[in-house]
Q: What sequence folds into this?
């Protein structure tokens, strides 16, 4: 039996979108255009990342707050344990709450010295993602208990993983600490996700595990990120992008089709929710949604 709850395959999928906070005026313009164009897709939520080392704290916060206040979307703010005390992190959570943001993506974050280095707890800071989840849940009970909390998970293991048993036990511990949903690192083979789901369910993880779908048309960039975070790139993907370094338009079409094809294969297995790493590019996310049969739903989004 499929470890997924069964739902009608013909239903349009539920989607969510991830953005990153803009660094410049030009990037801000692109982000807000993207938000405006994706809003009619009526996503379940949209999330905004928190820069490595906590470097985008203000920009993430401003972006999340503006989405909450100026659009009909439900934003989630990413929060990490890096470079801040518990009080500082929890004050960001309080500011979110006051701004009407009720969803946090709770992460440990990368070591400030870079991936591959040992993660050191910041003085007075949270030890890891479990400590962070517990900290949020226990903070002012009327507030902490009411947040929706999403967390990360790694279908091809995190680079620091101590093996599958430890990985699944750790994810289960996040759930026990109060996580409501896990979003996966990106992957390209449906079986990678399905195998992981089976292991997670066997290990007692019952929360939804939403596949994270990458929309990166820059294949050189994708290879760099994949090498850092431990996602594998199948041979067929290398072949699809071969010779396209100077042809951005074709790469974008390939990217949307690869993402839609992955979602369709997962959909055939009963997966209904997809989280898109949009890289703030509306066209790619929109075309992927269209290929999946999702149409603008102005009534829902208004
Ligand atoms: P955790 O899940 O807490 O730990 C990472 C891994 O370390 C675990 O999977 C496990 O393999 C191992 N591990 C740690 N502690 C234990 C333990 N006690 N026992 C066993 N194993 C253990 N980074 C950012 O800087 N900003 C973001 O906004 C951001 N958003 C992300 C969103 C998603 C959906 C994902 C998948 C990743 C995101 N990242 C982000 C990247 C993330 O910060 C890095 O992968 C980081 O190295 C780990 O953070 P984490 O919360 O996933 O860590």
A:
């Amino acid at each position: 039996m499929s470890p997924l709850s069964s739902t009608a395959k013909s239903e349009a999928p539920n989607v969510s979108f991830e953005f990153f906070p803009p660094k410049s005026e030009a990037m801000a313009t692109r982000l807000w255009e993207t938000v405006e164009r994706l809003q009619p897709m009526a996503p379940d939520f949209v999330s905004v990342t928190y820069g490595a080392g906590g470097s985008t704290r203000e920009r993430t916060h401003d972006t999340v707050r503006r989405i909450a206040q100026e659009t009909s979307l439900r934003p989630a703010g990413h929060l990490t344990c890096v470079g801040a005390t518990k009080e500082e992190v929890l004050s960001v959570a309080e500011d979110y709450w006051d701004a009407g943001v009720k969803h946090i993506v709770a992460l440990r974050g990368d070591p400030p010295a870079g991936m591959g280095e040992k993660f050191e707890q910041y003085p007075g800071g949270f030890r890891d993602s479990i400590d962070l989840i517990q900290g949020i849940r226990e903070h002012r009970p009327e507030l902490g208990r009411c947040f929706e909390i999403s967390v990360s998970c790694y279908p091809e293991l995190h680079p620091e993983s101590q093996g599958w048993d430890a990985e699944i036990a750790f994810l289960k511990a996040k759930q026990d600490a109060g996580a409501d949903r896990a979003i996966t690192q990106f992957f390209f083979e449906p079986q990678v996700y399905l195998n992981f789901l089976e292991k997670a369910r066997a290990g007692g993880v019952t929360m939804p595990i939403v596949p994270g779908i990458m929309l990166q048309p820059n294949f050189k960039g994708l290879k760099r990120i994949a090498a850092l975070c431990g996602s594998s790139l199948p041979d067929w993907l290398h072949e699809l992008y071969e010779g396209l370094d100077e042809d951005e338009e074709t790469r974008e079409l390939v990217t949307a089709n690869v993402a839609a094809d992955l979602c369709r294969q997962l959909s055939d297995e009963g997966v209904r929710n997809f989280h898109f790493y949009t890289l703030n590019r509306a066209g790619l996310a929109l075309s992927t949604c269209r290929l999946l049969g999702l149409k603008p739903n102005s009534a829902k989004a208004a």
